[in-house]
């Protein structure tokens, strides 16, 4: 006798008491609301992180006085990278908690902490006012940001993946990175507008604070969106199978019990985040510090690339549902391996057209990852440990390789004098990512491990 599908109604994330193994027919309204809240919340989180990198030169002058501009930039990026050192700790706390009490509650908590940390940066007195206390307070606020972000991406991607029907998980998941790009664009656009309208003295004295102070109201909006969500059908099914609150999963089981998937996760996230931070966070400073571009033009170029990426993003996500995640990710790795040097040489040619073409090429290659990873990474782990294991693997990789990219590349250029270091760094990441995608299994169109099939209601497209 066949098992009848269970429809997830609007009033509940899933109604599975009859048969926890029955397929779930997704409710379109719930899916749309879940995707919007996760993507919009992610946009707000990455607005907070993005404005720091876009204001790195100014922040270096405010908090790290020095006669050497390179030393100032290194210090500012050092504080940027420091937040990534505590991300694994945040992942180890928020990930298992998300598997225990639910995805929605933890995502609301991370939103509160991120907004508070960013708002605090805007309120810190300068080095000229309180001396060494200023960089210490900046570092503390960055630690709060990093700790909260340790539970953000894994939770948001898990949330969308567990709501989405199997055949559209790539398309729906791609909207998470659409939100990331929107946050970066909002941050870059605001910084660009301020640098164009304000004098250097005004920007240095008070203007840099404005983007950080906006974080408070934005955090309230994001919190409202996330508290209105219901738990995912997959998590509700796990709780139903346990016939009680979700049993606690030991941290050791999330690591040693998932070691192969964790290694694949680290490799995939490495290539994803090294190229992501290289283009979206480091490139504006590279154009300004290494190529002599003024700040406004450097930001406008990257801003245009991000707009292009946003346009392509949903189509690339839909493509992963048709051809699979592996071919799209593999194409991105091959592209970065073969085209990083030509693209950077084009950027270094210096003309606006050449810089735009070089960065656009890197941006389109990056879309291969931004469109695939939100659906590919959650599919590496079973529902029981998905949030926790993904948080650990994702944040360890980001902390060691992604968030340190601006600092490491700046230091390598300073040590070697070779301005092609960004290209070589992306090529090395592409090799590692290529090996990971070769070893991963295809997940497109298939149920998430440990979850029942998720079907799309007829006539909902």
Question: Main β-sheet: number of strands, strand sense, barrel status?
Answer: 3 strands, parallel
Report the C-alpha radius of gyration, rounded.
Answer: 22 Å
- What is the total tally of β strands? 3
Shape: globular
Summing up helix and strand content along with how strands pair, one would put the structural category as: mainly alpha
Beta-strand percentage?
Answer: under 5%
Q: What's the pLDDT, averaged over the residues?
A: 83
Q: What descriptors fit this protein?
A:
461 residues; mainly alpha; 3-stranded parallel beta sheet; 3 strands
Structure in words:
The chain is mainly alpha-helical. Helices cover 75% and strands 2% of the residues. The protein is built from 22 helices and 3 strands. The chain has helices at residues 28-54, 56-63, 69-85, 87-101, 103-123, 127-130, 133-149, 152-163, 169-197, 200-207, 209-213, 215-227, 233-242, 251-255, 259-289, 295-323, 325-348, 352-370, 373-376, 386-402, 405-416, 421-439, and strands at 6-7, 24-26, 454-456. Strands 1-2-3 form a 3-stranded parallel beta sheet. Helix 1 (28-54) packs parallel to helix 5 (103-123), helix 5 (103-123) runs antiparallel to helix 7 (133-149) and helix 15 (259-289) runs antiparallel to helix 18 (352-370). The radius of gyration is 22 Å and the shape is globular. The two termini are 30 Å apart. The model is unreliable at 6-18 (pLDDT under 50).
């Amino acid at each position: 006798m066949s098992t009848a599908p269970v429809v997830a109604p609007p009033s509940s994330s899933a109604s599975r008491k009859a048969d926890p193994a029955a397929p779930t027919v997704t409710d379109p309204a719930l899916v749309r609301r879940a995707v919007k809240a996760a993507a919009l919340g992610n946009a707000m989180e990455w607005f907070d992180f993005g404005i720091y990198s876009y204001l790195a030169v100014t922040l270096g002058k405010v908090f790290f006085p020095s006669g050497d501009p390179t030393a100032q930039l290194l210090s500012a990026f050092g504080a940027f990278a420091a937040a990534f050192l505590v991300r694994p700790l945040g992942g180890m706390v928020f990930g298992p908690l998300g598997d225990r009490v639910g995805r929605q509650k933890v995502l609301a908590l991370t939103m509160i902490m991120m907004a508070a940390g960013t708002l605090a940066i805007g309120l810190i007195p300068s080095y000229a006012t309180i001396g060494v206390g200023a960089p210490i307070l900046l570092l503390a606020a960055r630690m709060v940001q990093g700790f909260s972000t340790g539970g953000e991406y894994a939770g948001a991607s898990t949330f969308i993946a567990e709501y989405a029907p199997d055949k559209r998980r790539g398309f729906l998941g791609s909207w998470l990175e659409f939100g990331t790009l929107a946050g970066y664009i909002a941050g870059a656009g605001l910084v660009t507008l301020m640098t164009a309208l304000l004098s250097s003295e005004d920007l240095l004295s008070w203007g840099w604070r404005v983007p950080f102070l906006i974080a408070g109201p934005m955090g309230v909006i994001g919190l409202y969106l996330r508290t209105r969500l219901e738990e995912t059908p997959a998590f509700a099914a796990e709780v139903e199978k346990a016939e009680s609150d979700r049993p606690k999963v030991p941290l050791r089981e999330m690591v040693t019990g998932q070691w192969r998937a964790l290694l694949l996760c680290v490799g995939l996230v490495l290539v994803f985040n090294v190229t992501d931070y290289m283009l979206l966070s480091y490139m504006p400073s590279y154009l300004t510090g290494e190529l002599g571009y003024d700040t406004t033009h450097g930001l406008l170029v990257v801003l245009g690339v991000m707009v292009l990426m946003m346009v392509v993003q949903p189509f690339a996500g839909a493509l992963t549902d048709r051809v699979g995640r592996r071919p799209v990710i593999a194409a991105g790795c091959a592209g970065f391996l073969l085209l990083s040097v030509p693209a950077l040489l084009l950027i270094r040619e210096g003309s606006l057209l050449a810089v735009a073409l070089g960065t656009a090429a890197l941006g389109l290659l990056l879309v291969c990852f931004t469109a695939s990873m939100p659906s590919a990474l959650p599919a590496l782990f079973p529902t029981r440990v998905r949030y926790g294991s993904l948080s650990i693997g994702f944040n360890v990789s980001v902390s060691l390789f992604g968030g340190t990219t601006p600092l490491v590349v700046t230091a390598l250029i300073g040590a070697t004098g070779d301005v092609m270091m960004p290209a070589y760094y992306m090529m090395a990441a592409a090799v590692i990512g290529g090996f990971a995608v070769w070893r991963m299994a295809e997940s497109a169109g298939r149920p998430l491990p440990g979850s029942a099939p998720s079907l799309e209601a007829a006539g909902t497209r």
